[in-house]
Amino acid sequence: MKTMYPYIYTNKFNPFDVSKNVLNDREISGDQGQFKVTAVLEANMMYVIVVTTSSSITENVSIQVSGRSYTGFNRICSPSVIEIKYSDDVQSKYSLQLTTNSQTYSRDCRKSNYYYQTIRMHVMETGYYALISSSNTNTFGYIYEDDFNPMNPVENLLKQDYRACSSRDFKFIAYLYTDTKYILVVTTSSPNMTGKFSIQTSGPSNITLDPYTQIQTSCFIGQKCQFYKKSIGIILDDILRDEIQLNMTMTDQTILLKINAALTMIMFVGGFINSLLSLITFQNKDLRQIGCGVYLLASSITSFLTISMFTVKFWFVVLTQMNLSIPVSVVRGGCILIEPLLKLCLYLDAWLNACVAIERAILVFKGINFNKQKSQRIARWIILILPFCIMGSIIHEPIHRELYEMKTETNKVDIDRWCLTRYSPSVQQYNTIILFFHLVAPCIVNLCSALFIIFGSARQRSTAQTRRTIREHVYHQFNEHKHLLISPIILLILSLPRLIMSMLSECVNPSNHRLLFIFGYFISFTPSMLIFIVFVLPSALYRKTFQESVRRWRRLTHQ
After folding, report:
1. Superkingdom, according to UniProt (predicted)?
2. For residue 510, what pLDDT is reported?
3. DSSP at 510
């Protein structure tokens, strides 16, 4: 009776290394030429069943499977490389060297620091080709179709080399097509190995081999086949990450980080003074008889909240990178909440300023028919509802934010934490629209309201004062209200860096132009420090009210 031997492999079967990927957790029994295998199999996992016999014995084989659910079978027909005929004339040759300057990746998704080179293959004629390496080290070869992603070495993998245990180099027999992009990756059997190598190709026609630069790894975060694609936009985490020295005190950090820390605290103090002076002005009940005063009082508070959240964001990024012993739950909570809360305060501040502009335009339009009580009532409702509307528009951010923790094992074990936002294409498109809307729309509202005030006032004056032309009235109103035009233009210019950074490609590396990104990020928060300068100082009424409030406070403190 002929004896059969069954083997089960996970993912793939290598005929030159039969012990690799074999499933050992199984029970085998049988007699009279039959076998029975009992094994625990996982769902959504590919298994390869190999049935063989004693040497030089052939036989028909049928397999029956029983279990908890249906199991599908597909026969694998991959002919041995020895059976494939190809032309043995050397058509192409390529030589290169793996050095310590070569790029590294995780070849087997277990160990890092495999040096590698990528080579683009241009096939002139469809057919079987042999690719043979010759080197002074133990080389491995992989062929990829379309592109090679070092963060995910199994993606687009077309073929990998099988070799005898004694062979130091690889040999491919692959069927290659014209008009198809192939990438050959040459690496080593063990990490940190370097050396020279050469590639010879044989086949029906010439293969052109050229150096190839693969997709940018700055688009991805992670390693060892556990990676995430970065979302569009640059945030403070990306700008400061490479600047922060791990496990070092603030005194041992770089001079650039110290300057940023000092600038952050200066902005915090400046924001506090701005809000305090604005509150002193708009706490006056006479100014809050119409909606403008109510909006500006609320804006005095939200501007300080914005600068406060900016300060919290900066120190959260710095401290969580300096001190990795901070509990993961604290880091995860800050990752999910701080950035959305910062945007909420920033957007709320911008829209309150836009409400002031709209209120002023309505006042010009209504004239003596302007209803102060109604304006005040509407302003209170808007201040109550506006935060919920803004939060509703950005609610996708905390939902899609998560903390990714990565351990690197080079000379020592290091922990790297990334705060990620992972959007689907549709959510990413929505996020871009919302971002553009909240940053640009308030500035446009301010600008349009200023133009309406200038031309509306000029039209009213031309009706009452007919001795001047409409152009003269417009010119006079422009000189009187030019600060209403200048302010939104300045705010728009200051907001542009944040808008641009929020729409940059995920592959942009901020460390290449760190000073530029830091300057743009910090300057985008300066509008929250300018409430007093933009609204109080240009207005004679507000300036007079502020001076009276200061004098009243002085009298109270000296009593």
Report:
1. Eukaryota
2. 63
3. G
Structural domains for the chain? 1-78 (no CATH), 90-215 (2.60.120.380), 236-558 (1.20.1070.10)
Please give the Cα distance from 22 to 542 (Å, whole number): 81
Helices (H), 421-539: 425-464, 470-502, 514-523, 531
Report the share of the chain in percent with pLDDT over 90.
Answer: 13
Rounded-to-integer distance, Cα 525 and Cα 346, Å: 8
Whole-number Å distance between alpha carbons of 183 and 118:
7
Which is it for the CA torsion 536, 541, 547, 550, positive or negative? negative
Residue recorded with tokens 């509990």: 327
Token reading at 23: 């499933």
Residue 130 to residues 88, 124, 143, 536: CA-CA distances in angstroms? Answer: 8, 14, 12, 79
Phi, psi of 489 (to 5 degrees): -65, -45
Of 87, 77, 117, the residue nearest 101 (C-alpha) = 117
Query: Length of the chain in residues, anyone?
Result: 559
Q: How far apart are CA 405 and CA 224, in angstroms?
A: 13
What single DSSP character describes residue 231?
P
Q: How far apart are CA 255 and CA 253, in angstroms?
A: 7
Sign of CA dihedral 411, 413, 417, 418: positive
**C-alpha span between 236 and 521 (Å, rounded):** 8
Give residues with Cβ within 8 angstroms of 211, minimum separation 6.
96, 117, 118, 119, 120
Rounded Cα–Cα distance for residues 289 and 286 (Å): 6
Buried b (16+ CB within 10 A) or exposed e, 434-472: bbeebbeebbebbbebbbbbbbbbbeebbeeeeeeeeee
Q: What is the 3-state secondary structure (H, E, C) of 372-434?
A: HHHHHHHHHHHHHHHHHHHHHHCCHHHHHEEEEEEEEECCCEEEEEEEEECCCHHHHHHHHHH
Listed in sequence order, the DSSP H helices in 195-254 are 236-240
Taking alpha carbons only, the member of 29, 41, 38 closest to residue 4 is 29
* Phi–psi pair at 545, nearest 5 degrees: -65, -40
**Separation in Å, CA 450 to CA 290, 457, 477, 532:** 18, 11, 11, 18
Give Cα separations from 522 to 313, 314, 528, 556 (angstroms). Answer: 12, 10, 11, 38
Nearest Cα neighbor of 96 from 172, 186, 202, 162 is 186
- The stretch 445-452 carries a mean pLDDT of 85
Cα 217 from Cα 106, distance rounded (Å): 13
Global model pTM greater than 0.70: no
Whether pLDDT at 164 is above 70: no
- Burial (CB count <10 Å: 0-12, 13-18, 19+), residue 33: exposed
Cβ neighbours, 10 Å, residue 491: 22
Question: What pLDDT is recorded for position 410?
Answer: 44
Structure tokens at 527: 């509008």
Other C-beta atoms closer than 10 Å to the C-beta of 549 total 18
Burial degree of 325 (CB within 10 A; 0-12, 13-18, 19+): exposed
Cβ neighbour number for residue 426 with a 10 Å cutoff? 8
Rounded to an integer, what distance in angstroms lies between the CA atom of residue 364 and that of residue 455?
A: 10
Closest CA to 457 of 437, 436, 473, 438: 473
